Amino acid sequence: MNYYLNFLDGAREAARFASDGDPFQRDTNTNCSASLGPVTEDFYHQAACLAMQVARPLVLNPASDDVVISAFGVVEGEVTNRLPINPQDPPTGAETPGEWHLYGYGGACAPGDLNCNPSRVTATDIEARLSDTAPNTGILLVEVFFDYEQTLKLPWLTVFVPDPLHMHTYAIMPLVAAEPDL
């Protein structure tokens, strides 16, 4: 439970921090410092670095875990766009438009592909969470996917609970910079 809460706090803090940012702000410097946090001007990397920094001492495994960030533009209660349009610079061919991935990618996953973590939050999910009082807005979504390795590896427990247990946390915040121009 503590692992889940650490990563949930990471997603929430990253969403709070990035809610003042600009999803169109991109930078070629994509470094994260474990002690200093983000040392980049890239909107998506800054949020991902902060999510990982808040979750410390836990560390994401690049082979199976991921931070996924999306920004939504909403007009009259309906999602009109999902950013980023070009998630990776340069494109790897495996990215999904509207999902920025720190380590992996989304889209269609092959069975057993550990590095494929597509967003679990759809445009319909975002629309369902909106109130009628804010029909035109921008929304930020930060998702953290991680595999929890059971510590004790009790054989009778792994019959009911898979090991590792694939977990998912997310946070949603307003993002003024993603609000469509009308």
Give the biggest beta sheet.
5 strands, antiparallel
Helix/strand order: HEEHEEEHEHE
Count of separate DSSP helical elements = 4
Q: Mean pLDDT, as a whole number?
A: 81
Beta-strand fraction estimate: 15-25%
Q: How many whole angstroms does the radius of gyration measure?
A: 17 Å
The protein's oligomeric status is: single chain
**Coarse shape:** globular
How many angstroms does the end-to-end distance come to?
44 Å
The tally of beta strands, per DSSP, is 7
Q: Report the structural category.
A: alpha+beta
Give a verbal description of the structure.
The protein has 182 residues and is an alpha+beta fold. Helices cover 23% and strands 24% of the residues. The chain has helices at residues 2-18, 43-55, 123-129, 155-158, and strands at 32-33, 37-38, 66-75, 78-83, 100-101, 137-148, 165-174. Strand 3 (66-75) and strand 4 (78-83) form a beta hairpin. It starts with a helix and ends in an 8-residue tail after the last strand.
